[in-house]
Specification:
17 helices, single chain, mainly alpha, Growth Hormone, Chain: A, 398 residues
């Protein structure tokens, strides 16, 4: 029963947090029009959000190495609710910047994939891929369900109501944390690795020791590029689709479509990694991205935009179940939160760069073409880095 509560709560935290995060991309165009802003400026707000979130993902990793995960997650949810809810009453551009970029960035970084993934990895050491795949599906499901609902709200009521309801959704999750047994997923000196128990024995490298290895920098490069691609697309795909002639409702639901296909990719990735290792799904992720960016560079018809969304959507969040497992295999469990948090921080910091770059390119040229070229090249580099990891024993074998 404890196992079900923990997995369900982790899934729902990812579900709500994902929907809230992608709401900004959904409302990008109407906010730009209401406040008479360029997309580059709003893209900067998203970049600040990712920078702040990235730092607090790292800090949450350090916190979960020391404190009860329930307490860490509760603070994150409360701060997220405050930041995202007050956006509904924003009356000036600087308020969007502060509320979304800073306040929500702090809360969303604390109540993030970092503490949830570490908690379930410690509780399910032998089935970490499947367990992380399940909670990561919460992000995809949130993108699918919540974005679809918010797209209807956007058309019928307007963008402000979306943020008020997102605050309520965060607050509803707080009582669920009280149902989780105290200390579940905390790092203990015990070797018990059963669901609902304590974490495996604390052994492994520190962050500074890991940073002296080649495998650390290869993992960092892979996840930095993954973030660059992910959040360029998620921030700008709705506006891009509208530019290409898709109506507001259909374009808004592209993020939901990405969420649907991402659920398949995440589930496949987690199960595949448990059976055959981490690097095969990681490599497949970037090969599919190369194909999707190549398609949209060659053809930007309405059909091509839909196909691009489906193909890229399969890869979206596909590496999420693999992050903490790769860190555990490569560097051990002692500083799992700190090292995982650092790599996830790089992922989200580069995600902010992708969001900012997309807006900058569009404002300068009136198209996203140059940004698509950058994403294609970065995915090629990620393929090289993934192949290089084959020689670094990140699979944890032998």
């Amino acid at each position: 029963m404890n196992s079900l509560i923990i997995l369900t709560t982790g899934f729902l935290i990812m579900f709500v947090g994902s929907g809230a995060r992608f709401a900004f991309g959904l409302t990008l165009k109407p906010m730009a029009e209401e406040f008479a802003l360029g997309r580059g400026l709003l893209g900067t707000t998203v970049a600040v959000y990712f920078a702040v979130t990235a730092v607090f993902m790292f800090l949450s990793g350090r916190l979960i190495d020391r404190y009860d995960p329930r307490v860490v997650l509760a603070w994150g949810l409360a701060i997220s609710a405050a930041g995202i809810g007050l956006i509904g009453w924003a009356s000036a551009p600087w308020q969007l910047f502060v509320l979304y970029g800073v306040v929500f960035g702090i809360g969303n970084g604390i109540a993030s994939i970092t503490p949830v993934s570490i908690m379930v990895t410690r509780l399910y050491p032998e089935r970490a891929g499947a367990a992380n795949g399940l909670i990561s599906m919460g992000m995809s499901a949130g993108q699918l369900v919540m974005i679809a609902v918010m797209a209807f709200v956007l058309v019928g009521v307007g963008w402000r109501s979306i943020y008020v309801w997102l605050a309520v959704a965060h607050l509803v999750l707080l009582p669920l944390l009280l149902m989780i047994p105290k200390g579940s997923g905390s790092l203990q000196p015990s070797t018990a690795g059963v669901a609902g128990g304590t974490a495996p024995a604390a052994e492994g490298l520190s962050l500074s020791e890991a940073a002296r290895t080649r495998r650390f920098w290869l993992l960092l490069l892979v996840y930095a590029i993954c973030g660059l691609d992910d959040f360029f697309v998620s921030t700008h795909v709705v506006a891009f689709a509208q530019d290409k002639g898709l109506d507001t409702l259909l374009a808004g639901n592209l993020l939901a479509l990405m969420g649907l296909t991402a659920m398949l990719g995440v589930a496949w990735s987690g199960i595949w990694s448990d059976r055959y290792g981490l690097l095969r799904p990681m490599l497949a992720c970037f090969l599919l991205r190369i194909a999707s960016f190549g398609l949209i560079m060659a053809n930007q018809s309405k059909l091509a935009v839909l196909v691009f969304t489906v193909v890229f959507g399969i890869t979206f969040l596909m590496t999420a179940p693999l992050t903490v497992i790769a860190v555990r295999n490569a560097f051990g469990n002692r500083h799992l939160g700190t090292i995982s948090g650092f790599i996830i921080m790089a992922h989200h910091a580069c995600g902010g760069l992708g969001a900012w770059l997309g807006g900058l390119v569009f404002d300068a040229a009136g198209t996203y073409d140059t940004a698509f070229v950058v994403m294609l090249v970065s995915s090629l580099i990620a393929v090289w880095a993934t192949l290089a990891l084959r020689r670094e024993n990140v699979e944890g074998r032998g």
